[in-house]
Give the backbone structure.
Amino acid sequence: GIQVEQSPPDLILQEGANSTLRCNFSDSVNNLQWFHQNPWGQLINLFYIPSGTKQNGRLSATTVATERYSLLYISSSQTTDSGVYFCAVERESSNTGKLIFGQGTTLQVKP
Amino acid sequence: EAGVAQSPRYKIIEKRQSVAFWCNPISGHATLYWYQQILGQGPKLLIQFQNNGVVDDSQLPKDRFSAERLKGVDSTLKIQPAKLEDSAVYLCASSLGMGVYSGANVLTFGAGSRLTVL
């Protein structure tokens, strides 16, 4: 099956710093989503981004499908950004909406 | 718009007992997913429904897990008998549906049901 690798596994930042999270995948995809899991366990969808670039406030994401990676940028980080960030992908041949999740990047933002 | 509702939020049982989790998706969402998330790992798909039909249950341990979505709306996931390794958070998610348009597969998750098996 498709492999999804996220890096770094852990990240500690001071409030106000910027960061880049990376997601590599081993096969062509037609669906890629980024999620934030807050410390209470709720998964929030951040981006649906199978290709191209999107921005939402301090967050932006870029997917280069031909090179099989996606990046999530967090600017001017806040303590509320803490939690686990997951990348999830669906193989291009699937078209069922079945997402395979990476292991996540755990982010801690210190005040 | 109401989100994805799940219950119970927490459940503690002894091994070999049974447990059931309930999920009500966002109104109008045809596709419903059950994911299992073990501590420190990403969610893993157990079963996917499109309306009341099963799309994918390839990773569902069918000797102990069962799920149904009889009227194409809410769903129940059951574990019987439970094992220690079933301790996890069971997440329900929904989406508009397969192939409606490219963004129709955006998933919305519920808060999850945390199971502890002793």
